[in-house]
Design goal:
About 45% of the residues lie in helices and about 10% in strands. A seven-stranded mixed beta sheet has the order 11-10-12-13-15-14-20, with helices on both faces. A six-stranded parallel beta sheet has the order 2-1-3-4-8-7, sandwiched between helices. A five-stranded mixed beta sheet has the order 17-19-18-21-22, sandwiched between helices. The longest helix is centred in the middle third of the chain and has 47 residues. About 50% of the residues are buried. The chain binds thiamine diphosphate and magnesium ion (MG). Thiamine diphosphate binds next to strand 5.
Length: about 800
């Protein structure tokens, strides 16, 4: 247990106490799993996925886990969470029931199913806590291996804190980079690309990551022979093992039921990772799953009798028990006694969790029932209402849906009666009170939310010449790296050559290769590096070389980054900036603009589409003053266009969610963004020559969209709307139209059918003609507007075709 040199030697009594304490945690965890399954089967909870069969290795992990360390794992880790003191019995059951109170259910306030663990990095106001004084778990997600990219970033943060000299060596996130990021994953999930991508990247980066694989030979019903070459993940990863010549991994294997060996293994792993910043992989073999995968099935369907018998014998708790008896740590009777007490304790915790879950709703139920009874007394529909009230009253364990369903149905029966507004108010107030429990914190609700950052215009020396626009970006990044020591940027070709368009030219020489770095071609883990580092107080800018390749990262953006604030009800954040470039250039994979797909996948991340590099630089400056994640898409064909160099580099700020009217006009409002705006401007000039006056609005942000409803204000003057973008038909243009019609009620002011002009449905073809025949051209825009005006005034604007 006790590794020499790490702790003073313990007496046998101390040792015994420690082991017994471990055993107690493990049996409590097991009992939670057993009782948890029953809660689902009897209908009190909806779904259960538990940590039974994986308890003992997690005790060993927890012993090696120190304050400041981070976990990035998956749904089997309840024993670990209990062992580090971050999950009580009552909290375990609160999660199972879906208690929406963040104190009762600190993992996600009921937003995630049980088994998805998290600790709080932020206080109730969204401010960072001192993460070095607590044990940390990044919030789990369900997609298997989705925890891997972020794990890389959590580990890399230690490397940055230890080695970047401008950062203080002791802060809220790190003490000299001594923290380990601990990953856990199931054996079957190592089949995912994200696993291999992360393993390779961590070997390259040499970061303090300890990766545990809980191997129970199955992924639900699918055996290892379908999952892993040679059915052995550590065997096939042997090439990653470091040696005298080459850096790499330390790879260890250990049996999951061997308590003593596990503890030794984890202590050794921790020492290597913490001291040397070398990644370690621990393959924990021979684990079991006594109750099968989840509450949705039974493992008897796919495990044969021999396997089931083996699982009973090698259940890690049974083996730990035998070991304790053999080593005279406890007698069978003492252990039986402990088992009985654990059962009792779990039952009590479960009961308390249930009471805490249902009591508030029961109070609300009583209040509503008495209101309904009052309403019934004077209603013509009294018989029906009384029946509803009675049915509601009889529900012993009500949920909020029961209350609202009854109230909303009754409201329809009392239209025009004296109590209509009483019930309507009750419903409105109740929804206003309850809805945030399910819908708050999609974005930051702290003082640093993007809306708190005010616009600062760029200032200019009037005599200054215009320069290539990429220089505006570069000099602004220079100012950023000087102003904010915690910023760093990384991407393919971002380091030595200063990105493919030279927006970072010279930055690596000036700020070093840890802050301005080249990375491998692996977009998902570039994103993950960013997420993990942002969760530990750094301000990473993750660069995706081209917008078309964001697809490799979109899953992680969507599942992990976009949901982080939401799934922790504001208790974790990752203010990551994602920088990319796109829209128009050449060919199928260098001129895509799949904005509809992106904005629909990443609600929870701001999506910003600056039309030039000064606007883009201003967005970076704004984002660094805020605590929210965002994607900034620079115009790929804009780097060599001329822009004036601002004087207040690093200081001017483009506001988020605010449009800019770049041309005033009176006949029609054209809404667009990004590269297409230049074509809209050209077409508008030509239209002006025949007397058609176009107002052009640059949305600047797609998410959030026009928070001041400027477009509606414009429609009040022009009464006509055309949305132009270069996504597929029904892509981002459909979103823009929905916002203008649904959210802004823009249809009130329209005299013509609102229209969209988008690209062809196929990918954009190569070459100038390919672009012309794939994406909206200035002529397309001209003719679309002209046709709309022809409909209004055919005499003045006779048909073109
Ligand atoms: C991307 C993705 N695909 C499928 C699933 C459904 N699923 C949940 S767990 C699981 C099996 C995982 O097995 P393993 O990694 O061995 O972990 P274990 O449950 O055995 O501990 C599957 C297929 C999922 N959650 N995510
Ligand atoms: Mg498995």
């Amino acid at each position: 247990m006790i590794v020499e040199g790490t702790k003073p030697a313990l007496t046998f009594e101390d040792f015994k106490t420690e082991v017994l304490n471990d055993y107690k945690i493990a049996i409590i965890s097991r009992e939670c799993s057993l009782l948890g399954r029953r809660e689902v089967l009897t209908g009190k909870a909806k779904f259960g996925i538990f940590g039974d069969g994986k308890e003992v290795p997690q005790l060993a992990l927890a012993k090696a886990f120190q304050n400041g360390d981070f976990r990035s794992g998956y749904y089997r880790d309840q024993t670990f969470m209990m062992a580090i003191g971050e999950l009580s019995i009552q909290q375990f059951f609160a999660g199972l029931y879906g208690n929406t109170d963040i104190i009762a259910e600190p993992m996600s306030a009921g937003r995630q199913m049980g088994g998805h663990f998290a600790t709080h990095s932020l206080d109730e106001n969204g401010n960072w806590k001192d993460l070095t004084q607590q044990k940390n778990s990044s919030a789990d997600i369900s997609p298997t291996a989705g925890q891997m990219p972020r794990l890389l970033g959590l580990a890399q943060a230690s490397k940055i804190y230890r080695n970047v000299s401008v950062l203080s060596k002791k802060n809220k996130f790190s003490e000299n980079g001594n923290e380990i990021a601990w990953g856990t994953i199931g054996n079957a999930s190592t089949s995912e690309g994200l696993f291999f991508e992360t393993i390779n990247a961590a070997g390259v980066l040499q970061v303090p990551m300890v990766m545990s694989i809980w191997d129970d030979e199955y992924g639900i019903s699918v055996h290892a022979k379908h999952q892993t070459t040679k059915e052995n993940i550590s065997e096939i990863l042997k090439g990653f093992q470091r040696d005298e010549q080459n850096k790499g991994y330390e790879i260890m294997t250990v049996l999951g039921w061997d308590y003593a060996a596990l503890i030794g293994t984890y202590q050794r792993a921790a020492q290597i990772a913490r001291d040397e910043h070398v990644p370690v992989l621990i393959h924990v073999k021979e684990l079991t799953q006594p109750q099968g995968h989840s509450t949705s099935g039974s493992h008897e369907r796919y495990k044969n009798a021999a396997r089931l018998a083996w699982e009973t014998e090698f259940d890690c708790l049974a083996q730990m028990r035998l070991w304790m008896i053999a080593n005279t740590i406890a007698t069978p009777e003492e252990l039986d006694e402990m088992d009985t007490l654990a059962k009792k304790e779990v039952l009590e915790g479960k009961k308390a969790a249930w009471t805490a879950f249902v009591d508030p709703v029961k109070k609300e139920q009583n209040e509503l029932v008495s209101l309904l009874e009052t309403i019934a007394a004077t209603s013509v529909n009294r018989v029906f209402i009384q029946k509803y009230a009675q049915d509601l009253k009889e529900i012993k364990e009500p949920i909020r849906k029961d209350l609202l369903t009854s109230a909303r149905k009754i409201l329809r029966m009392i239209i025009g009666e004296k109590d209509q507004s009483l019930l309507a108010n009750w419903i409105t107030n109740y929804i206003n009170k309850i809805q945030p429990k399910f819908s708050s914190h999609l974005f930051s609700e702290s003082n640093e939310a993007v809306y708190s950052v005010k616009e600062v215009l760029p200032t200019y020396d009037n005599a200054a010449d215009e320069v290539d626009a990429r220089l505006v970006l570069r000099d602004n990044f220079d100012a950023i790296f000087t102003k904010y020591p915690e910023t760093l940027i990384f991407g393919e070709d971002a380091g030595t050559i200063g990105d493919v368009n030279q927006g970072l030219e010279g930055m690596q020489e000036k700020y070093g290769d840890l802050r301005v770095s080249d990375v491998g071609i692996r977009e998902a883990t570039i994103l993950g590096q960013g997420i993990g580092m942002a969760m530990r107080g750094l301000r990473p800018i993750a660069e995706i070389q081209y917008l078309d390749y964001l697809l490799y990262a979109i899953q992680i953006m969507s599942d992990d980054l976009a949901t982080l604030q939401y799934r922790t009800k504001g208790r974790q954040k990752a203010p990551l900036i994602i920088r990319t470039r796109g829209h128009r250039l050449e060919g199928v994979w260098h001129s895509g603009s799949p904005m509809g797909m992106i904005i629909n996948a990443v609600r929870g991340i701001h999506v910003l589409v600056p039309r030039n590099m000064t606007k883009a630089a201003g967005f970076y400056n704004t984002l660094l003053e805020s605590d929210e994640p965002a994607l900034v898409i620079e115009c790929l064909n804009g780097y060599r266009l001329k822009e004036k160099m601002p004087l207040n580099l690093g200081g001017f700020k483009t506001p988020i969610g605010i449009t800019e009217t770049i041309r005033k006009g009176s006949d029609i409002t054209i809404v667009s963004y990004g590269s297409t705006l230049r074509l809209v401007e050209q077409a508008s000039k030509e239209l002006q020559e025949i007397g058609i006056s176009c107002e052009i609005i640059d949305t600047q942000s797609l998410l959030p969209f026009d928070i001041n409803h400027d477009i509606k204000k414009s429609l009040m003057e022009t009464n006509r709307l055309l949305v132009v973008d270069e996504d597929v038909p029904g892509g981002a243009s459909a979103f823009i139209l929905q916002q203008i019609l649904d959210v802004q009620n823009g249809y009130d002011y329209l005299d013509s059918k609102p229209q969209t002009l988008a690209s062809k449905a196929h990918r954009p073809a190569y070459g100038t003609d390919g672009d012309y025949f794939s994406k909206p051209s200035a002529e397309d825009i001209y003719e679309k507007v002209y046709a709309m005006m022809n409909e209004v005034n055919p005499t003045e604007y006779p048909s073109l075709y």
